[in-house]
Amino acid sequence: MRVFITGAGGFIARAVAARLRDEGHQVAGVDLHADEAAGVVAGDITSDGAWQDAAAGADLVVHTAAVVSNAVGLDGQWRVNVGGTRRALDTAVRAGASRFVHLSSIRAFSDLGFPDGVTEDHPVRPDGNPYVDTKIASEQVALQAHAEGRIAVTVVRPGDVYGPGSRPWTTLPVQLIKKFQFLLPAMGAGVFSPVYVDDLVEGLLLAGREPAGAGQIFTLSGGVGVTCGEFFGHYYRMLGRRGPWVAPTAVAVAVARLAGGAISLTGAATEVNAVSMRYFARTGTYSIEKAGRLLGYRPTVDLTEGMARTERWLRAEGLLT
């Protein structure tokens, strides 16, 4: 099989590519910066260009390229997350690919609340957050292409993906904890839905291969929810620190708003803001029953094992010093 990956230099994309190569498949991709050794060409998915030629002959296109941030405005996120998805789909069709796997997010359910054990048939909910709203719009673009019969599309909503190389849920929290800048709302009792990167990769490949996945949306998490205090507490222990630091939600949101405002005055972008705090105050979990039933998805790396693997990587990279 020949596979083309957008955002090929990213955390999830690199893990997908490594797994595919281990299985003997041909892998190419596009990212803002080329990596000739990995078959990655330079290109911007928001614009037509020579990068599209590299997708020629692909059987499967895995679309991971996106702005994943609470610190980028609507225009910037729309250009990549929605417009870029449209162009990636057009490229896949032109390349003759038979399947397009689109990475969305569990945040399509919104940060404002959803039922515990929420399933894929629960309505998505725009909430004014650029990331949430553009992920919802990107799903519409992808599923429209499927409905029109242009290409078979599968939408995947990953949970909170952690592990070696994860910026939002591994390296960034460690950096903030080391700087004494990490705080959890809801007294640390908010619900986190971790999925170790290897389990996500397995689910993604099942979604791209199984005929039953065409035209479907799948949530891929580890299948369990833990408190934010429990999840991020692993990083505190790796660093030999007491914690996590916690506060009531209203206090944490106010602190984040003030801290984020102060940082933004320096011209720097920051994920320390009220949106991030509200995300850590979620109360619901996400069902993976559908992925198990239609794809045979069964996560195998629990939090204890996943964090042990993550710690070994962090130490090898010198990030716990």
Descriptive key words:
321 residues, alpha/beta, Rossmann fold, seven-stranded parallel sheet, two-stranded parallel sheet, 11 strands, 41% helix
How does this model look, in words?
The chain is an alpha/beta fold and 321 residues long. The chain has a domain at 2-161 and 194-223 and 283-301: NAD(P)-binding Rossmann-like Domain (Rossmann fold). 41% of the residues lie in helices and 14% in strands. It contains ten helices and eleven strands. It has helices at residues 11-22, 74-95, 130-147, 167-178, 197-209, 228-238, 249-264, 274-279, 289-295, 303-316, and strands at residues 2-6, 26-31, 40-42, 60-63, 99-103, 152-158, 160-162, 191-192, 194-196, 217-220, 226-227. The strands form three sheets. Strands 3-2-1-4-5-6-10 form a seven-stranded parallel beta sheet, with helices on both faces. It has a two-stranded parallel ribbon with strand order 7-9. A two-stranded antiparallel sheet has the order 8-11. Helix 1 crosses helix 5. The chain is globular and about 55 Å long. 50% of the residues are buried. The mean pLDDT is 94.
Class derived from helix and strand content: alpha/beta
| CATH fold description of the domain at 2-161 and 194-223 and 283-301 | Rossmann fold
The share of residues in extended strands comes to 5-15%
* Helix and strand sequence: EHEEEHEHEEHEEHEEHHHHH
Instruction: Provide the residue-averaged pLDDT.
Output: 94
Q: How helix-rich are the residues, as a percent range?
A: 40-55%
